[in-house]
Amino acid sequence: MTDPDDQYVYSFEWNMPSESVPLFYSTIKKSLDQWPGGDPVEQEILQEMHKQAYQLLIERSFLEG
After folding, report:
1. Which helix (DSSP H) or strand (DSSP E) does residue 45 occupy?
2. 10-13: long-range contacts (C-beta < 8 A, 24 or more apart)?
3. What are the tens digits of pLDDT across the range 29-44?
4. How is the chain split among helix, strand and coil, in percent rounded to 5?
5. Does residue 59 belong to any structural domain of this protein?
6. Contact at 8 Å (CB) between 22 and 57?
7. Which of 11, 29, 31, 34 gives a 20 to 30 Å CA spacing to 40?
8. What confidence category does residue 64 fall into, taking pLDDT thresholds of 50, 70 and 90?
9. Own/partner long-range contacts of 23-26 (Cβ < 8 Å, ≥24 apart)
């Protein structure tokens, strides 16, 4: 998530085996589904992570057929 108002914006890149993508997605989805409340900014960040993880899952499905 990039917000020009943020003082610090970081970009990370890492590699993972293709088989890990569904687990990565389901872990983020579970965290979002079981959100206990708290800082709404953290929830927004988690929602953006969920969206990006879903895109990764769809891309993996498309590339691997």
Report:
1. helix 40-64
2. none
3. 999 999 999 999 999 9
4. 65, 0, 35
5. yes
6. yes
7. 11
8. confident
9. 24/53, 24/56, 25/53, 25/54, 25/56, 25/57
Reading the block at residue 1, the tokens are: 């998530």
Single-letter residue type at 23: L
Region 9-22: what's the mean pLDDT? 88
Global confidence as pTM: 0.76
For the cut 70, the answer to whether the pLDDT of residue 5 exceeds it is no
Q: For the chain, how big is the Rg over CA atoms in Å? A: 14
Strand, coil or helix: 8: coil
Tokens representing residue 42 in the block: 């953290």
- Number of domains forming the structure of the chain: 1
Residue 22, in any domain of the structure = yes
